[in-house]
Write a structure and sequence with these properties.
With 596 residues, this protein is an alpha+beta fold. The protein has 14 helices and 28 strands.
Amino acid sequence: MAGQRIEDYALIGDTHTAALVGRDGSIDWLCLPRFDAGACFAALVGTADNGRWKIAPRDGFDRVERCYLGDTMVLSTVMTCASGSVEIIDFMPEAEDFHRADLVRMVRGRSGRVTMAFDLTIRLDYGRLIPWVRHCDEGMRAVAGPDAIHVASPVPLQGDNWHTVCEFDIAEGETQAFTLTWFPSHEPAPKPFDPDRLLDLTCAWWQAWADRGQHCTRWHGAVQRSLLTLKALTYSPTGGIVAAPTASLPEWIGGSRNWDYRYCWLRDAGLTLAALLRTGHREEALAWREWLLRAVAGEPSQLQIMYGIAGERMIDERELPWLEGYEGSTPVRVGNEAANQLQLDVYGQVLDVFFLTYQQDVEPVGDAWDLQKDLLADLVDKWRQPDDGIWEVRAGRRHFVHSKVLCWVAFDRAIGATERLGLDGPVEDWARLRAEIHAEVCERGFSKSKNSFVQAYDGEDVDAALLMIPLLGFLPPDDSRVIGTVEAIQRELQRDGAVYRYQWREGVDGMDHPEGGFLVCAFWLVEALCMIGRETEAEEMFETLLGLANDVGLYAEQYDPGEGRHLGNFPQAFSHIGLISAANRLDARTEKGPTA
């Protein structure tokens, strides 16, 4: 949909699903009732005819300002035009009833009198299905198959060429509230509710959650917004955590790197959990642990790198040819074929997060430790195999160094758990494997000519994922090989303030287009620079990265420095995790002093 950059959107959500609201007052993406359900508003990757809900001054506006109300996911958009100004408050009440999902839009007059235009287009199944619409005194109802959507409106609505429209005036001090509610079509419509009361309850719910956290003070606002974003990406009924709430936003405009991120990657979810745990949010740790035990139950050799938000294993990838793609970036994909890849790093990521829970005094349970031992038993031989790597390349498996380092992490953290808690396990065998992996990585994964670790065994290309080597404790930060790796990544992968995952050239990853700089890699570089004693440089880079956030503090997956715009799915958990971790690293370094 032309006109809106990815960073022009803001997120609202209810820990069941989420919507993207544009600066122009249009909600262009919403899946109901779950993150991974079919979108009823898909204009984000199509056109207005694929579903949206726009409320804005009829004759346009001269200025727009946005913010979240305090430490919440309640969005305020103030639009000013020649005749006055209005505030639109958008939010999704935290859902207690799993059989419904609500979206509330409140229009408040701030000055003058403004004529507002209301344009609602509901298209179910990712913008493909036109529902059966019936208008009634209190609004309208749309039905298609199992889905029903009720829209309550204080002003009369009418149909116009398969759209629902109206105009209304709003004067200073007046409020008009509209609500959209999804419910199963075989059930009766939900009872009406008081929007003002829901707003108060929603603000109080988010603020109470935010107040439970404990984190750094130097960049409190940015860290708090990132934490709230991560919480909004959790699926509260199961404890699953999605990587992003969107599908098929391109990693390069006009390119084909368009993936569906509305699933639970073990890696991303684990890192999200780590960020929440380190900032005092223990409840999510327990919920995620239970989700993980359910999701991976069964034969350890059948471990997947990602699952559905309730632990589903079938995530078939398919294309939606009726959608033209974001700014023409096709194909539009839902589902994700990468679920079938072998990514050995997830073993280490899972063991690392479990160990962190033990460090944070989260009580261990027998089932969780049994699962970890089963995963390690599966890894005993599997670590020697080539894999698809953290970046999910589609050009064949290789012996990726980052993957091997995380295999080392898996055995290292298991040994740490036995030492800390007295848990049982074949510690001598784990220690032998830990040493073997370490020696092999240092031998085959390090280039003496570059004085740097490399992307894959016996190669010469570097990879930003290698910045994790000191962060994970594989080698100490003052090791000359670590310093050399950081410097090589700066020379070869840092350009115009962005950090790229690897050097792209045709055929290197199975894709036919390049991509933007990867934001989490830039935050990793901040941490690595801080750890090797270059704190001033690290802090300057961190401040630059803070300036890349959009006006409400959100980040996509990638950034194009040439065009000065965000790329990829949005908002991206990985980017916000990187911000939180880098801020905490800088804070801790400052407290301990430059020689710590």
